[in-house]
Design brief:
single chain, 3 strands, 500 residues
Length: 500
């Protein structure tokens, strides 16, 4: 077979594997939005079959043969895009080849059933009913990690799935640097916020009108509804690829911020997915780099843009159009409201100052759980103790404590650190964007978001996996990832909102 024919066959297989993954994602989206409860068992079986087929194609001998042939071709010179695809598929192939197909199918089934068990358990604040499912998921994930192998911590194998190349030791060091600066800063701002006593703005806001506003804001920042849709789920998420990118949201009838910032957050994820280079559709060259970079896009739009005063100079009149009862709301009052700082129980509703404390807690728990230093049955007590230590509050029930996140029920151990990485990436990228777009604040004030989106398309989205996450940040910003940019951002913004 010629080098050209090997590459064509390889790309055809890669795109087929990609399509199988998209089908899995679509079934998962349906499971969390419209699937009737009695469909859970059948859906689990469907997901397991698809996951098994996809795994077999990726790990199979045919893919091994093609990669070997392309390794030979590479010596003669593949183009840069082809080299990216070979590099990334080889990494995934070698990882998948080490994992028995029966484990992949077993995990897919447990993920589907476990998520349904979690929904029920959270609704009833009943951790013991969910614990057996988490035990099963954790056992399979450990077996997969051991099959893949690792040099340091077993958690490394979990991290690599979401943040390729990252290690537990590196993340722990980076988070340690952040924690050293963040803990005293958060303590100072929390005390200043307590003294300021800024009450949240609440009222009665009909959900249908909130949904309309969420769609309007998403469209305003560039989300293409011809290539997506917004629905409702227990835990907001984004799924899909390029021409079909869907996200979900949730709403609180008495608090507008839940739906607004959910839409901006998931809208940021969706803009990334819609922004891949169509010329590389279905290949790693046209896909997301890491979940840390993915999260940087959502946090950038939600926080750096969406919680800025400049954004609300444009968007507050739109809010008032949707809710005439808010006609008397001032820009100052609303800006303070959306940047109000307080120790809170729920991660997804936490402010920018305290959010990463929630992630540091989860990272520490996950590493200990994976390494067997703590048991599943002890999670509620350990969770509550760490909440007291880091934020000075304790969940009154497990629904607002250890059961609040969907991740463990979905087998997504190793995912949580990417949220804090996303915040750090976002701050550094946004600083670079401000240098590249001198009138960025003016653009936000005028409701002109195209310049920022175009910059992100050029520098992040369309580059796909050309670079790994750390290298991409260095290429775009000229520096490696530094927590100091995030702390500078917090100090500049919240130091002004809550002066000593």
């Amino acid at each position: 077979m010629t080098a050209k024919k090997s590459l064509e066959t390889f790309l055809s297989m890669v795109k087929e594997i990609h399509d199988l993954g998209c089908a899995e994602e679509l079934l998962a989206w349906d499971q969390q939005t419209f699937m009737p409860p009695k469909g859970a068992e059948a859906r689990a079986s469907q997901m397991a079959v698809l996951a098994g087929v996809r795994h077999d194609r990726l790990a199979g001998d045919r893919m091994a043969e093609l990669l070997a042939a392309l390794d030979e071709s590479e010596k003669g010179g593949l183009d840069p895009d082809a080299r990216v695809n070979v590099r990334e598929v080889r990494r995934l192939h070698e990882r998948a080849r080490k994992v028995p197909a029966e484990l992949v199918r077993e995990l897919a089934k447990l993920q589907s059933l476990g998520q349904n068990a979690w929904v029920r358990a959270r609704k009833e604040s009943d951790f013991p009913s969910f614990a057996p499912w988490l035990e099963k998921i954790l056992a399979v994930k450990r077996r997969i990690a051991d099959a893949i192998g690792y040099e340091g911590s077993r958690y490394d194998a979990f991290l690599d799935e979401f943040e390729p190349g990252a290690t537990t030791a590196e993340i722990a060091s980076l988070f340690g640097e952040l924690k050293k600066a963040l803990v005293p800063f958060a303590g100072r701002i929390l005390e200043a916020a307590r003294l300021a006593s800024i009450e949240p703005i609440r009222g009665t806001y009909p959900i249908p009108e909130q949904e309309k506003l969420a769609r309007r804001l998403a469209r305003m920042i560039g989300y293409d509804f011809e290539a997506g849709r917004i629905d409702v789920s227990a835990h907001p998420f984004t799924t899909g690829y390029l021409h079909d990118v869907r996200f979900t949201n949730r709403y609180d009838e008495n608090d507008l911020t839940v739906g607004i910032f959910g839409a901006l957050h998931e809208g940021g994820h969706a803009l990334y997915q819609q922004g891949f280079d169509p010329a590389h559709e279905g290949t790693p060259r046209g896909d997301w780099v890491s979940l840390g970079i993915h999260e940087s896009q959502s946090r950038l739009w939600e926080n750096m843009v969406g919680r800025s005063r400049a954004f609300w100079e444009h968007a507050l009149p739109l809010l008032k159009e949707s809710f005439p009862d808010a006609a008397g709301l001032t820009l100052d009052a609303w800006h303070r409201n959306v940047n109000r700082v307080e120790a809170s129980l729920i991660r997804v509703e936490a402010d920018e100052v305290t959010y990463n404390l929630h992630i540091l807690l989860r990272f520490e728990i996950e590493v200990d759980l994976v390494e067997g230093r703590i048991e599943v049955a002890d999670l509620p007590a350990i969770w509550n103790e760490k909440m007291r230590a880091s934020l000075g509050i304790e969940p009154p029930d497990d629904a607002r404590g250890v059961l609040q996140d969907i991740h463990w029920s979905a087998g997504l151990l190793g995912y949580f650190p990417t949220y804090t990485l996303g915040n750090l990436y976002a701050a550094q990228l946004y600083r670079a964007a401000a240098r590249a777009i001198p009138d960025l604040e003016g653009c936000l004030r005028r409701g002109e978001f195209g310049s920022l989106l175009d910059w992100l398309r050029r520098t992040i989205h369309r580059r796909g996996r050309t670079y790994r996450a750390g290298e991409l940040v260095r290429v775009v910003t000229g520096e490696p990832l530094r927590p100091s940019y995030f702390m500078d951002y917090l100090e500049e913004k919240y130091g002004a909102l809550y002066p000593e």
